[in-house]
Amino acid sequence: MKDLIATSLKYQSGQLLVLDQHQLPHNEIWLDCQSVPGMVSMIRKLQIRGAPLIGIGASLLLADMAKRGIAEAALIEAANTLRAARPTAVNLMNCMDRMVSVLRDRGPAAMMQEAELIFEEDIALCERMSLLGADLIRPGSNILTHCNTGSLATAGVGTAIGVINKAHAQGKDIHVWVDETRPLLQGGRLTSWEMKQLGVPYTLICDNMAAMLMAQGKVDTILVGADRIAANGDFANKVGTYSLAVNARYHKVPFYVVAPYTTVDPACPDGSAIPIEERKAPEVQGVSGSFGDVIWSPEDAAVYNPAFDVTPAELVSGWILDTGVFSQADIDEGALSSFRL
Ligand code: MRU
If you average pLDDT over every residue of the chain, what do you get? Predict the structure, then answer.
Protein backbone atom coordinates (compact mmCIF):
# COMPACT_ATOMS: atom_id res chain seq x y z
CA MET A 1 0.00 0.00 0.00
CA LYS A 2 1.08 3.59 -0.46
CA ASP A 3 2.51 5.63 2.42
CA LEU A 4 0.07 7.82 4.37
CA ILE A 5 1.66 11.03 5.58
CA ALA A 6 0.02 13.63 7.84
CA THR A 7 1.66 16.33 9.96
CA SER A 8 1.64 14.18 13.11
CA LEU A 9 0.87 10.63 11.93
CA LYS A 10 2.53 8.44 9.29
CA TYR A 11 2.08 4.95 7.97
CA GLN A 12 5.32 4.60 6.07
CA SER A 13 6.91 1.44 4.66
CA GLY A 14 4.57 -0.60 6.87
CA GLN A 15 5.48 1.29 10.06
CA LEU A 16 3.05 3.38 12.14
CA LEU A 17 4.70 6.55 13.45
CA VAL A 18 3.27 9.18 15.79
CA LEU A 19 4.75 12.68 16.25
CA ASP A 20 5.16 13.12 20.02
CA GLN A 21 2.99 16.20 20.66
CA HIS A 22 4.42 16.51 24.18
CA GLN A 23 7.70 17.55 22.66
CA LEU A 24 6.32 20.27 20.38
CA PRO A 25 7.08 23.01 19.54
CA HIS A 26 10.73 22.53 20.49
CA ASN A 27 11.47 18.97 19.33
CA GLU A 28 10.02 16.90 16.50
CA ILE A 29 10.33 13.31 17.67
CA TRP A 30 8.53 10.43 15.94
CA LEU A 31 7.49 7.41 18.03
CA ASP A 32 7.02 3.91 16.66
CA CYS A 33 3.61 2.52 17.58
CA GLN A 34 3.05 -1.22 17.24
CA SER A 35 1.04 -2.25 20.27
CA VAL A 36 -2.36 -1.54 21.81
CA PRO A 37 -0.90 -0.63 25.24
CA GLY A 38 1.53 1.71 23.44
CA MET A 39 -1.29 3.48 21.58
CA VAL A 40 -3.52 3.65 24.69
CA SER A 41 -0.67 5.22 26.66
CA MET A 42 0.01 7.77 23.88
CA ILE A 43 -3.68 8.71 23.76
CA ARG A 44 -3.89 9.08 27.56
CA LYS A 45 -0.72 11.19 27.69
CA LEU A 46 -1.94 13.28 24.72
CA GLN A 47 1.17 12.41 22.70
CA ILE A 48 -1.37 11.69 19.96
CA ARG A 49 -4.48 13.85 20.29
CA GLY A 50 -7.31 15.60 18.47
CA ALA A 51 -10.62 13.74 18.17
CA PRO A 52 -10.26 12.81 14.45
CA LEU A 53 -6.56 11.91 14.67
CA ILE A 54 -6.85 9.44 17.56
CA GLY A 55 -9.57 7.56 15.62
CA ILE A 56 -7.36 7.42 12.52
CA GLY A 57 -4.26 6.35 14.49
CA ALA A 58 -6.16 3.58 16.29
CA SER A 59 -7.64 2.37 12.96
CA LEU A 60 -4.20 2.17 11.35
CA LEU A 61 -2.87 0.25 14.34
CA LEU A 62 -5.71 -2.30 14.12
CA ALA A 63 -5.17 -2.66 10.35
CA ASP A 64 -1.45 -3.15 10.88
CA MET A 65 -2.13 -5.83 13.51
CA ALA A 66 -4.46 -7.60 11.05
CA LYS A 67 -1.66 -7.47 8.46
CA ARG A 68 0.69 -9.06 10.98
CA GLY A 69 -1.73 -12.01 11.25
CA ILE A 70 -3.20 -11.30 14.71
CA ALA A 71 -6.29 -13.50 15.25
CA GLU A 72 -9.81 -12.07 14.77
CA ALA A 73 -10.77 -12.43 18.47
CA ALA A 74 -7.64 -10.53 19.53
CA LEU A 75 -8.38 -7.79 16.99
CA ILE A 76 -11.87 -7.36 18.41
CA GLU A 77 -10.49 -7.23 21.95
CA ALA A 78 -7.92 -4.65 20.80
CA ALA A 79 -10.67 -2.52 19.23
CA ASN A 80 -12.61 -2.61 22.53
CA THR A 81 -9.53 -1.56 24.52
CA LEU A 82 -8.69 1.28 22.11
CA ARG A 83 -12.35 2.38 22.04
CA ALA A 84 -12.20 3.03 25.81
CA ALA A 85 -8.90 4.98 25.76
CA ARG A 86 -10.63 8.36 25.47
CA PRO A 87 -14.23 8.46 26.72
CA THR A 88 -15.28 11.91 25.45
CA ALA A 89 -14.26 11.91 21.77
CA VAL A 90 -16.76 9.87 19.76
CA ASN A 91 -14.59 9.70 16.61
CA LEU A 92 -12.46 6.98 18.23
CA MET A 93 -15.54 4.87 18.96
CA ASN A 94 -16.97 5.43 15.48
CA CYS A 95 -13.67 4.38 13.88
CA MET A 96 -13.36 1.25 16.04
CA ASP A 97 -16.94 0.20 15.24
CA ARG A 98 -16.29 0.79 11.54
CA MET A 99 -13.08 -1.30 11.59
CA VAL A 100 -14.74 -4.16 13.50
CA SER A 101 -17.67 -4.28 11.10
CA VAL A 102 -15.24 -4.45 8.15
CA LEU A 103 -13.41 -7.29 9.93
CA ARG A 104 -16.69 -9.18 10.45
CA ASP A 105 -18.14 -8.52 6.97
CA ARG A 106 -15.06 -8.62 4.74
CA GLY A 107 -12.29 -10.18 6.82
CA PRO A 108 -8.91 -8.96 8.15
CA ALA A 109 -7.42 -8.45 4.68
CA ALA A 110 -9.87 -5.59 4.06
CA MET A 111 -8.89 -3.64 7.20
CA MET A 112 -5.88 -1.77 5.81
CA GLN A 113 -7.93 -0.53 2.87
CA GLU A 114 -10.59 0.72 5.31
CA ALA A 115 -8.02 2.50 7.51
CA GLU A 116 -6.60 4.17 4.40
CA LEU A 117 -10.13 5.24 3.45
CA ILE A 118 -10.68 6.73 6.94
CA PHE A 119 -7.37 8.64 6.61
CA GLU A 120 -8.13 9.97 3.11
CA GLU A 121 -11.73 10.75 4.02
CA ASP A 122 -10.62 12.92 6.94
CA ILE A 123 -8.47 15.01 4.60
CA ALA A 124 -11.49 15.60 2.36
CA LEU A 125 -13.80 16.37 5.32
CA CYS A 126 -11.33 18.97 6.63
CA GLU A 127 -11.14 20.55 3.21
CA ARG A 128 -14.93 20.88 2.91
CA MET A 129 -15.47 22.29 6.45
CA SER A 130 -12.62 24.73 6.01
CA LEU A 131 -13.96 26.16 2.77
CA LEU A 132 -17.52 26.41 4.12
CA GLY A 133 -16.25 28.14 7.25
CA ALA A 134 -13.92 30.51 5.41
CA ASP A 135 -16.96 31.93 3.57
CA LEU A 136 -18.21 33.22 6.95
CA ILE A 137 -15.01 35.11 7.77
CA ARG A 138 -15.00 38.81 6.95
CA PRO A 139 -11.77 40.45 5.73
CA GLY A 140 -9.71 41.90 8.58
CA SER A 141 -11.32 39.64 11.21
CA ASN A 142 -9.84 38.98 14.62
CA ILE A 143 -10.61 35.32 15.30
CA LEU A 144 -10.28 33.70 18.72
CA THR A 145 -9.65 29.95 18.95
CA HIS A 146 -9.24 27.45 21.79
CA CYS A 147 -7.07 24.34 22.10
CA ASN A 148 -5.61 22.88 18.89
CA THR A 149 -7.73 21.81 15.94
CA GLY A 150 -5.33 21.90 13.01
CA SER A 151 -3.08 19.56 11.08
CA LEU A 152 -1.78 18.16 14.38
CA ALA A 153 -5.29 17.05 15.34
CA THR A 154 -6.51 15.63 12.01
CA ALA A 155 -5.10 14.02 8.86
CA GLY A 156 -5.85 17.20 6.91
CA VAL A 157 -5.86 20.96 7.43
CA GLY A 158 -7.99 20.68 10.55
CA THR A 159 -11.40 21.91 11.68
CA ALA A 160 -11.44 25.39 13.31
CA ILE A 161 -7.80 25.92 12.30
CA GLY A 162 -8.71 24.61 8.84
CA VAL A 163 -11.11 27.54 8.51
CA ILE A 164 -8.37 29.92 9.69
CA ASN A 165 -5.94 28.33 7.22
CA LYS A 166 -8.31 28.85 4.26
CA ALA A 167 -9.36 32.38 5.25
CA HIS A 168 -5.68 33.32 5.48
CA ALA A 169 -4.88 31.64 2.14
CA GLN A 170 -7.77 33.59 0.59
CA GLY A 171 -5.99 36.80 1.58
CA LYS A 172 -8.57 37.86 4.17
CA ASP A 173 -5.96 39.58 6.32
CA ILE A 174 -6.99 37.86 9.53
CA HIS A 175 -5.38 37.87 12.97
CA VAL A 176 -5.84 35.05 15.50
CA TRP A 177 -6.08 35.23 19.29
CA VAL A 178 -4.69 31.89 20.51
CA ASP A 179 -5.99 30.74 23.92
CA GLU A 180 -3.10 29.02 25.71
CA THR A 181 -5.65 26.35 26.77
CA ARG A 182 -5.23 24.99 30.25
CA PRO A 183 -4.33 22.48 31.57
CA LEU A 184 -1.85 21.13 28.99
CA LEU A 185 -1.35 24.28 26.94
CA GLN A 186 -2.29 22.80 23.57
CA GLY A 187 -2.98 26.34 22.35
CA GLY A 188 0.27 27.84 23.62
CA ARG A 189 2.42 24.97 22.39
CA LEU A 190 0.60 23.57 19.36
CA THR A 191 -1.73 26.20 17.88
CA SER A 192 1.00 28.86 18.12
CA TRP A 193 3.34 26.44 16.31
CA GLU A 194 0.73 25.84 13.60
CA MET A 195 0.02 29.58 13.16
CA LYS A 196 3.74 30.15 12.75
CA GLN A 197 4.03 27.35 10.17
CA LEU A 198 1.08 28.80 8.23
CA GLY A 199 2.31 32.38 8.49
CA VAL A 200 -0.94 33.52 10.13
CA PRO A 201 -0.50 36.60 12.36
CA TYR A 202 -1.39 35.52 15.90
CA THR A 203 -1.19 36.61 19.53
CA LEU A 204 -1.02 34.15 22.39
CA ILE A 205 -3.27 34.90 25.39
CA CYS A 206 -4.15 33.19 28.67
CA ASP A 207 -7.61 31.60 28.69
CA ASN A 208 -8.89 34.08 31.27
CA MET A 209 -8.18 37.13 29.05
CA ALA A 210 -10.80 36.31 26.42
CA ALA A 211 -13.75 38.11 28.06
CA MET A 212 -11.77 41.33 28.38
CA LEU A 213 -10.80 41.24 24.70
CA MET A 214 -14.44 40.69 23.73
CA ALA A 215 -15.51 43.65 25.90
CA GLN A 216 -12.91 45.78 24.10
CA GLY A 217 -14.35 44.81 20.70
CA LYS A 218 -11.16 43.00 19.73
CA VAL A 219 -12.78 39.65 18.83
CA ASP A 220 -15.02 39.36 15.73
CA THR A 221 -15.52 35.59 15.62
CA ILE A 222 -14.81 32.55 17.79
CA LEU A 223 -14.05 29.21 16.13
CA VAL A 224 -13.65 25.99 18.14
CA GLY A 225 -13.55 22.26 17.44
CA ALA A 226 -15.52 19.47 19.13
CA ASP A 227 -14.93 16.04 20.58
CA ARG A 228 -18.58 15.02 20.41
CA ILE A 229 -21.73 16.76 19.15
CA ALA A 230 -25.03 15.48 20.56
CA ALA A 231 -28.22 15.19 18.48
CA ASN A 232 -29.58 18.46 19.96
CA GLY A 233 -26.39 20.40 19.05
CA ASP A 234 -24.82 20.51 22.54
CA PHE A 235 -21.16 19.65 22.23
CA ALA A 236 -18.11 18.69 24.29
CA ASN A 237 -14.76 20.34 23.65
CA LYS A 238 -11.59 21.15 25.59
CA VAL A 239 -12.42 22.65 28.98
CA GLY A 240 -12.82 26.43 28.73
CA THR A 241 -14.93 26.30 25.57
CA TYR A 242 -18.16 26.77 27.56
CA SER A 243 -16.87 29.97 29.23
CA LEU A 244 -15.97 31.32 25.79
CA ALA A 245 -19.50 30.61 24.54
CA VAL A 246 -21.12 32.32 27.55
CA ASN A 247 -18.88 35.35 27.10
CA ALA A 248 -19.49 35.39 23.35
CA ARG A 249 -23.25 35.54 23.88
CA TYR A 250 -22.93 38.38 26.41
CA HIS A 251 -20.68 40.37 24.07
CA LYS A 252 -22.62 39.44 20.90
CA VAL A 253 -19.62 37.74 19.24
CA PRO A 254 -20.51 34.97 16.72
CA PHE A 255 -19.46 31.57 18.12
CA TYR A 256 -19.05 28.66 15.69
CA VAL A 257 -18.19 25.00 16.23
CA VAL A 258 -16.38 23.28 13.35
CA ALA A 259 -16.38 19.46 13.10
CA PRO A 260 -16.74 16.58 10.64
CA TYR A 261 -19.70 14.15 10.67
CA THR A 262 -17.44 11.65 12.46
CA THR A 263 -17.73 13.86 15.58
CA VAL A 264 -21.55 13.79 15.58
CA ASP A 265 -23.18 11.25 17.88
CA PRO A 266 -26.85 10.92 16.83
CA ALA A 267 -27.39 8.35 19.62
CA CYS A 268 -26.48 10.93 22.26
CA PRO A 269 -29.61 13.03 22.92
CA ASP A 270 -27.92 15.99 24.63
CA GLY A 271 -24.76 17.19 26.34
CA SER A 272 -25.66 15.70 29.73
CA ALA A 273 -25.09 12.22 28.23
CA ILE A 274 -21.51 12.97 27.08
CA PRO A 275 -18.93 11.33 29.39
CA ILE A 276 -16.29 13.81 30.53
CA GLU A 277 -12.74 12.54 31.06
CA GLU A 278 -11.09 13.64 34.30
CA ARG A 279 -7.33 13.94 34.36
CA LYS A 280 -4.70 13.74 37.07
CA ALA A 281 -3.97 16.44 39.65
CA PRO A 282 -0.32 17.25 38.71
CA GLU A 283 -1.49 18.86 35.42
CA VAL A 284 -3.11 21.61 37.52
CA GLN A 285 -0.77 21.60 40.51
CA GLY A 286 2.21 22.48 38.35
CA VAL A 287 3.96 21.88 35.06
CA SER A 288 6.21 19.19 33.57
CA GLY A 289 8.72 19.57 30.79
CA SER A 290 12.23 18.81 29.66
CA PHE A 291 13.31 20.94 32.66
CA GLY A 292 11.63 18.41 35.01
CA ASP A 293 8.54 18.86 37.21
CA VAL A 294 7.56 22.09 38.94
CA ILE A 295 4.77 22.03 41.54
CA TRP A 296 3.45 25.47 42.48
CA SER A 297 0.57 24.42 44.72
CA PRO A 298 0.84 22.66 48.08
CA GLU A 299 1.63 19.08 47.09
CA ASP A 300 -1.59 17.83 48.67
CA ALA A 301 -3.85 20.52 47.13
CA ALA A 302 -7.20 19.00 46.15
CA VAL A 303 -7.66 19.28 42.38
CA TYR A 304 -10.62 18.90 40.02
CA ASN A 305 -9.36 18.45 36.46
CA PRO A 306 -12.06 17.73 33.85
CA ALA A 307 -10.46 17.72 30.39
CA PHE A 308 -13.62 18.84 28.56
CA ASP A 309 -16.78 20.82 29.15
CA VAL A 310 -20.15 20.90 27.42
CA THR A 311 -21.44 23.95 25.57
CA PRO A 312 -25.23 24.09 25.23
CA ALA A 313 -26.60 24.43 21.70
CA GLU A 314 -28.39 27.69 22.56
CA LEU A 315 -25.01 29.47 22.75
CA VAL A 316 -23.87 28.33 19.29
CA SER A 317 -24.28 30.66 16.29
CA GLY A 318 -23.71 27.87 13.76
CA TRP A 319 -22.39 24.33 13.34
CA ILE A 320 -19.88 24.23 10.47
CA LEU A 321 -19.89 20.59 9.35
CA ASP A 322 -18.56 19.00 6.17
CA THR A 323 -22.08 18.98 4.69
CA GLY A 324 -22.90 22.62 5.34
CA VAL A 325 -23.40 25.30 7.95
CA PHE A 326 -26.29 24.30 10.21
CA SER A 327 -28.48 26.65 12.28
CA GLN A 328 -30.43 26.00 15.47
CA ALA A 329 -33.57 25.70 13.29
CA ASP A 330 -31.91 22.95 11.16
CA ILE A 331 -30.98 21.10 14.35
CA ASP A 332 -34.48 21.48 15.80
CA GLU A 333 -35.73 19.84 12.60
CA GLY A 334 -33.47 16.84 13.35
CA ALA A 335 -30.47 17.63 11.12
CA LEU A 336 -28.10 15.89 13.54
CA SER A 337 -30.31 13.09 14.84
CA SER A 338 -30.57 11.65 11.31
CA PHE A 339 -26.88 12.25 10.55
CA ARG A 340 -25.17 9.60 8.42
CA LEU A 341 -22.63 7.25 9.92
O1 MRU B 1 -7.55 16.96 24.42
P2 MRU B 1 -7.20 17.40 23.03
O3 MRU B 1 -5.97 18.18 22.93
O4 MRU B 1 -7.26 16.27 22.04
O5 MRU B 1 -8.41 18.37 22.71
C6 MRU B 1 -8.67 18.69 21.43
C7 MRU B 1 -9.88 19.51 21.26
O8 MRU B 1 -10.46 20.02 22.18
C9 MRU B 1 -10.30 19.66 19.89
O10 MRU B 1 -11.12 20.77 19.71
C11 MRU B 1 -11.04 18.42 19.38
O12 MRU B 1 -10.40 17.22 19.71
C13 MRU B 1 -11.19 18.51 17.91
S14 MRU B 1 -9.65 18.46 17.06
C15 MRU B 1 -9.99 18.69 15.44
Answer: 95
Ligand 1: atom nearest CA of 160 is: 15
In a domain, 339, yes or no: no
- Annotated catalytic, 265? no
Whether ligand 1 lies within 6 angstroms of the CB of 141 is answered as no
- Among the listed residues 331, 340, 147, the one whose alpha carbon sits nearest the alpha carbon of residue 236: 147
CA 87 to mean position of chain CA atoms: 13
Q: In Å, how far are 1, 56, 110, 163, 244 from 106, measured between CA atoms?
A: 18, 19, 6, 37, 45
d(CA 254, CA 317): 6
Let me know whether 275 and 255 are in one domain.
Answer: yes
Where does the pLDDT of residue 339 fall: very low under 50, low under 70, confident under 90, or very high at 90 and above?
A: low
Residues 76, 115 share a domain: yes
Position 341 in a domain: no
* CA 248/CA 231 separation, integer angstroms: 23
- What is the count of structural domains for the chain? 2
Same-domain pairing of 159 and 112:
no
Residue ID of nearest Cα to ligand 1 atom 15: 149
Q: What average pLDDT does this structure show over 9-31?
A: 94
Gap from CA of 72 to ligand 1 centroid (Å):
31
Question: Whole-prediction pTM value?
Answer: 0.96
Q: Which of 207, 227, 234, 322 is catalytic?
A: 227
Residue 338, in any domain of the structure: no
Ligand 1 binding pocket mutation candidate from 49, 193, 243, 311 (most atoms within 8 A of CB): 49
Whether the CB of 147 sits within 6 Å of ligand 1: yes
User: Whole domain around residue 49: which residue ranges?
Assistant: 4-125
